[in-house]
Specification:
This protein has helices spanning 6-29, 32-35, 100-105, 160-164; strands at residues 38-51, 73-86, 90-98, 119-127, 132-140, 168-179, 182-189, 204-211, 214-221, 224-234, 239-249, 255-266, 271-283, 297-309, 312-323, 328-329, 335-336, 338-349. By secondary structure, the chain is mainly β. This is Porin.
């Protein structure tokens, strides 16, 4: 477990609120048009999790190999505070996170993650023209269907594909609007998930080609390579199908591949039911599934309801992870291939 310096963390909290108050005061002194350019937004989330066929505490406690929402009983997600300024040509985003989900999101920050780093994203941008935008700093990944913020995902727990793809990058990217619904992004970045500085002088290179909401993503990083497709379609007014597929080849001859489908059906203005069906397979002993056996695979089915009450969303969720080899423990500590679990989450957006 990572330890956090409580005194420094409290000081950072106080500084954040003072900074927020100062920005708000400055914004109030400007005219109405300028006030709309500076915004404070974010989320707060918490959840309850219980295994249905395994222990819920102690050494036999099991959880899926994916990121986030894996703690037993009543548990915390994160508080996310995003300060942004949108000027006519330039702007910035300062995205700060507090809590277990936030700490997991910045796991590879080498200098400060163990002492209270709270930066999820921190970047400036320049709209060079109507068709070209440059972004410089730390930004969340462009790969994958899911994101770190729980408000940006339909399911509360996350997929294996999301959990073992990149989380964040630090570098320079250029976005191009090519017209006719086509877009292109090119990037040069520090090694994947290393956010504060470059520790080894090596760089990652990324690209994204988009057309009408469908994206083909590529990243190459020190002998590692990943290709990813992310998209979705409105089948009719109430039914949507999201799609994610990826292949990752690591320099140590391990890797993974998988596909996830996200059908979502809107039953009313305030309730939607969605299923994530995912197949994920490893090359060698990549370690994501947790079997300790080469070339393991897992099928994960997650059924989630999403009920809106104003700015609050309640998400009950049933999940079944079925691995090809023993990956979990039952209540008596015996190995087993399948784990079923229940999550009830609450996400407030502001």
């Amino acid at each position: 477990m990572k330890t956090i310096n409580t005194t420094n963390f409290v000081k950072k909290l106080i500084f954040l609120f003072l900074l927020t108050g100062s920005f708000s005061a400055l914004a109030q002194e400007e005219d109405t048009a300028d006030e709309k350019k500076f915004t404070i937004s974010g989320t707060v989330d918490a959840y309850y999790r219980a295994n249905l066929n395994s222990a819920n505490s102690g050494i036999n406690y099991s959880a899926p190999g994916s990121s986030f929402a894996n703690l037993p009983g009543f548990a915390l997600g994160m508080a996310n505070v995003i300060a942004s300024y949108e000027g006519e040509d330039v702007g910035f985003v300062a995205d700060l996170v507090f809590g277990p989900r936030g700490t997991d999101a910045i796991f590879a920050s080498p200098l400060y993650s163990a002492t209270g780093n709270i930066v999820n994203q921190l970047y400036v941008y320049w709209n060079v023209s109507d068709a070209v935008t440059l972004t410089f700093g730390n930004f969340n990944t462009f790969l994958g269907y899911e994101v770190i913020s729980p408000a940006g995902n339909f399911n509360y727990s996350t997929s294996y594909l999301f959990s073992y793809g990149p989380f964040s990058h630090t570098g320079l990217k250029a976005d191009f609007d090519l017209g006719s619904d086509w877009s292109l992004m090119l990037a040069v970045m520090n090694p994947t998930d290393i956010t504060e500085f470059n520790p080894n002088g090596k760089y990652a290179y990324g690209a994204q080609l988009g057309y009408s909401g469908q994206y083909l993503n590529l990243i190459a990083d020190d002998g590692n390579f990943e290709i990813d497709y992310t998209g979705g379609f409105d089948i009719d007014e109430d039914l949507y199908l999201g799609i994610n597929a990826a292949y990752f080849d690591a320099s140590d001859d391990t890797g993974f591949a998988g596909v996830a489908l996200y059908p979502q059906y809107k039953t009313s203005d305030t309730f939607t039911l969605g299923l994530r069906g995912e197949y994920f397979t490893e090359t060698g002993n990549f370690g994501a599934i947790g079997t300790g056996v080469d070339d393991s695979s897992v099928i994960a089915l997650t059924l989630t309801g999403s009920a809106s009450i104003g700015d609050l969303v309640i998400k009950p969720e049933l999940r079944l992870d079925n691995a090809s080899d023993d990956a979990f423990l039952d209540s008596d500590g015996a190995s087993m291939k399948s784990l079923s679990s229940f999550v009830l989450a609450a996400v407030y957006s502001f």
